[in-house]
Amino acid sequence: MDFAVRRYLPSDETAWLRCRALGFLDTTYFDAVERTKPVIPAPGIELVATGQDGEVIGVIDVAVEGDEATIETIAVHPDHRSRGIASALLEEVLAYLRTQNVATLDAWGREDPSALRWYRSSGFAEGEHYLHVYADYDADAAEPDRAIGERRPGLRPVRAFLHAKIEDEAVMREQFARVHVCRRFVQDVNS
Ligand SMILES: CC(C)(COP(=O)(O)OP(=O)(O)OC[C@H]1O[C@@H](n2cnc3c(N)ncnc32)[C@H](O)[C@@H]1OP(=O)(O)O)[C@@H](O)C(=O)NCCC(=O)NCCS
């Protein structure tokens, strides 16, 4: 194993942001860019994987509320995938969650094949689904108007991000170019 897993430190912030941005670049989350690291309050956990030169090559953030935990971010640098980095991060998270009496760990993902495969092979079961819908003037000038009925005078919508019910998937796909199925993955921490 030529990587190490350790706690995130405030001095990692720039490296963390870059790893996340590159990790998401080849996925449907390519435009979900953060410019400051989201805060994970205690008793949540933030881990990084580092390479041989100490560079950050994988990140995981997990929020904890009562006996439920949620993966807020998981990303491995594209040059370092399929080496067990995400699995090592998850293993350490699960060990920590057991000490906190957490019962379930969940995560939300879209249809990115590498992520779907990884969640399924890492003990997560797929649960509820809903839709992420983008209404974008550049895709079709009529999309924002289809999404937003009543306009505030003086403001013209150009781009909007919306949630919709999975039952409306066919209609949404007819009317909007960018629609993602957002799915919950969940596993029992103590199994
Ligand atoms: C999903 C993601 C985090 C997985 O990271 P990863 O470090 O490549 O994951 P792992 O290496 O632990 O596992 C990936 C695969 O490599 C295999 N693998 C693990 N160690 C290996 C090794 N030493 N040699 C060869 N293959 C290995 C695993 O069996 C796994 O196969 P599978 O996907 O068919 O089950 C990564 O693809 C990623 O960052 N994707 C983009 C960001 C993203 O989509 N995040 C989730 C948003 S919801």
Provide the fold topology.
Layout: E1 4-7, H1 13-25, E2 45-50, E3 56-65, E4 68-76, H2 85-99, E5 104-109, H3 113-121, E6 125-136, H4 143-147, E7 159-165, H5 169-175, E8 178-188
Parallel strand pairs: 4-5
Antiparallel strand pairs: 1-2, 2-3, 3-4, 5-8, 6-7, 6-8
Bound molecules: coenzyme A (COA).
Observed structural traits:
191 residues; alpha+beta; Aminopeptidase; 8-stranded mixed beta sheet; 34% strand; globular; binds coenzyme A
Describe the overall structure:
This protein is of the alpha+beta class and 191 residues long. The chain folds into 2 domains: 3-102, 3-Layer(aba) Sandwich (Aminopeptidase); 108-191, no CATH class. It contains 5 helices and 8 strands; from the N terminus they run E-H-E-E-E-H-E-H-E-H-E-H-E. An 8-stranded mixed β-sheet has the order 1-2-3-4-5-8-6-7. Helix 2 (85-99) links the parallel strand 4 (68-76) and strand 5 (104-109). Coenzyme A is lined by residues 23-24, 27, 29, 74-76, 81-87, 109, 112, 114-115, 117-118, 121.
The CATH homologous superfamily of the largest domain corresponds to Gcn5-related N-acetyltransferase (GNAT)
Helix and strand pattern: EHEEEHEHEHEHE
The small molecules bound here are:
coenzyme A
Structural class: alpha+beta
Quick synopsis:
This protein is α+β, with helices and mostly antiparallel strands.
